[in-house]
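Lecture notes, continued. The same structure-token format from the folding unit now serves as the input rather than the output. Read the line below as a description of shape only.
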């Protein structure tokens, strides 16, 4: 074999979608086996008990199930937000900061206008403020990219840290106890809190994200603007050749991306936490990158990937809680699961064969 490798890695042309999802499902099963082994070694628990605990974390009670749907909805919302930019090959890593800025605008409205205007009007002001804040925050790196071709990955990443410090600054201003923590905003009047629907406090959040999912899917699949950003993503030179104004597409797409992140901040502050802190986004801006990428930028598939990650995250936390481990152990298990899911993409995109077989295809001999 002239000393060459016995294996050959080649790019797959295409594979059926069901085969790709079968590979991902197999990766999840393997990840759960590894998590069970790790937990068993550290706790001495039966692996079947570990699996039962994972399921219990999401479906153990009605409350846990609604929390699962809520977490899935927020993660899905952020994933929808970054997807238009990603399809355009604008790597918006600033979802975390854009969510925080949207949440900060929402909290400011609740803090300064709560009890001073009808709640319906306050909610409308919160919606507008969060959308505008998120959109403007995303527009800043978009302008620099469109005019001076700056590195959007670094720019949007650094904007996250600026957003965190802004939130910290205002938390210290609004804090009445000197702890730097705002606490629940308007706990007595509930001014600015999302209304419950059917007795469920998270249902409105879920419905809003469901509507956004359909809207983003239609926008990317069938609208002229969705087509333009896809062309820009394939080749800016081609886009300019066919008359598409690339700079305009970049600015417009990032306005949409930031606005949707602002909505996620609104849902977190107005509909879930009713407060603001530097950890409100909870890393969702970064996890959303993986959700969008794993779903191949398809909003419908993002529902599945968001649900999977939310389910695994809840299960890992339940394992840590039931077995008396700290929360970091749950993060370790989540990391193992994500490692297997990401690794499965290699086998979806590439095939591994013998070098001998490759030589026969090329008509060469050892």
């Amino acid at each position: 074999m002239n000393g060459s490798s016995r294996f050959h890695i080649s790019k797959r042309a295409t594979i059926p979608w069901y085969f790709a999802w079968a590979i991902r499902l197999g990766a999840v099963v393997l990840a759960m086996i590894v998590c069970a082994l790790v937990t068993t070694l550290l706790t001495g628990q039966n692996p079947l008990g570990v699996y039962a605990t994972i399921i219990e974390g999401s479906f153990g009670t009605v409350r846990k199930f609604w929390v699962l749907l809520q977490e899935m909805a927020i993660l899905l919302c952020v994933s929808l937000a970054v997807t238009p930019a990603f399809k355009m090959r604008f790597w918006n890593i600033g979802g975390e900061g854009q969510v925080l800025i949207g949440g900060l605008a929402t909290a400011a409205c609740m803090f300064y206008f709560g009890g001073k205007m009808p709640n319906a009007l306050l909610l409308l002001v919160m919606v507008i403020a969060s959308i505008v804040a998120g959109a403007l925050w995303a527009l800043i790196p978009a302008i620099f990219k469109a005019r001076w071709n700056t590195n959007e990955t670094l720019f949007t990443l650094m904007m996250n840290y600026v957003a965190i410090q802004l939130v910290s600054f205002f938390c210290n201003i609004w804090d009445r106890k000197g702890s730097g923590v705002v606490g629940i905003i308007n706990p007595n009047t509930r001014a600015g809190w999302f209304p419950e629907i059917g007795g469920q406090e998270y249902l409105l959040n879920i419905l809003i994200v469901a509507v956004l999912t359909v809207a983003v899917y239609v926008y990317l699949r069938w609208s002229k603007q969705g087509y333009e950003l896809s062309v820009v993503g394939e080749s800016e030179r081609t886009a300019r050749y066919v008359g598409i104004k690339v700079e305009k597409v970049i600015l417009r797409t990032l306005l949409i991306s930031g606005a949707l992140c602002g909505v996620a901040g609104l849902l977190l502050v107005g509909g879930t936490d009713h407060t603001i802190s530097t950890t409100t986004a909870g890393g969702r801006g970064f996890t959303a990158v993986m959700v969008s990428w794993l779903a191949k930028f398809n909003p419908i598939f993002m529902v599945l990937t968001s649900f999977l990650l939310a389910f695994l995250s809840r299960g890992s936390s339940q394992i840590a809680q039931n077995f008396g481990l700290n929360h970091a152990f749950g993060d370790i298990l989540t990391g193992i699961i994500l490692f297997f899911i990401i690794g499965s993409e290699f086998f979806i995109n590439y095939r591994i064969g013998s070098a001998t077989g490759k030589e026969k295809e090329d008509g060469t001999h050892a």
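Point for the exam: The mean pLDDT is 89.
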